[in-house]
């Protein structure tokens, strides 16, 4: 079973700030075992759907 997490990032139109925010977001999620599954963008925001394998208690 997989679990999902959606993150919406407001874009600032300042390239360096947006790059830093996205880098931090992906690094943070990666450390938690999340990987990007889907991305969508409009003029003002980026939506990223992350996924990871769900852990079930008692099952290795």
What key attributes describe this structure?
about 60 residues, alpha+beta, 1 helix, about 30% helix, about 40% strand, elongated
Textual characterization of the structure:
- There is one protein chain.
- By secondary structure, this protein is of the alpha+beta class.
- Helices cover 28% and strands 42% of the residues.
- The protein has one helix and three strands, in the order E-H-E-E.
- It has one helix spanning 15-31; strands at 2-10, 35-41, 45-53.
- Strands 1-3-2 form a three-stranded antiparallel β-sheet, covered by helices on one side.
- A hairpin with a 3-residue loop joins strand 2 and strand 3 (45-53).
- The longest helix has 17 residues, at 15-31.
- The protein is elongated and about 45 Å long.
- The mean pLDDT is 91.
Topology:
Blueprint: E1 2-10, H1 15-31, E2 35-41, E3 45-53
Antiparallel strand pairs: 1-3, 2-3
> Rough shape?
elongated
Our count of helices gives: 1
Q: Share of helix among residues?
A: 25-40%
Q: In what order do the strands lie side by side in the largest sheet?
A: 1-3-2
> Low-confidence segments, ≥5 residues, pLDDT <50?
none
Number of strands: 3
* Elements, N to C (H/E): EHEE
For the record, give the distance between the C-alpha atoms at the N and C termini, rounded to a whole number: 13 Å
Would you tell me the overall average pLDDT? 91
Q: Biggest sheet: strands, sense, closure?
A: 3 strands, antiparallel
Tell me the Rg in angstroms. Answer: 14 Å
Based on secondary structure, the structural category is alpha+beta
What portion of the residues fall into strands of 2 or more residues?
35-45%
């Amino acid at each position: 079973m997989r679990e999902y997490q959606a993150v919406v990032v407001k874009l600032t139109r300042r390239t360096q700030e947006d790059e830093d925010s996205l880098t931090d977001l992906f690094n943070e999620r990666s450390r938690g075992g999340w990987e990007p599954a889907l991305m969508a963008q409009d003029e003002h925001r980026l939506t990223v759907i992350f996924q990871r394998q769900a852990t079930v208690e008692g099952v290795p």
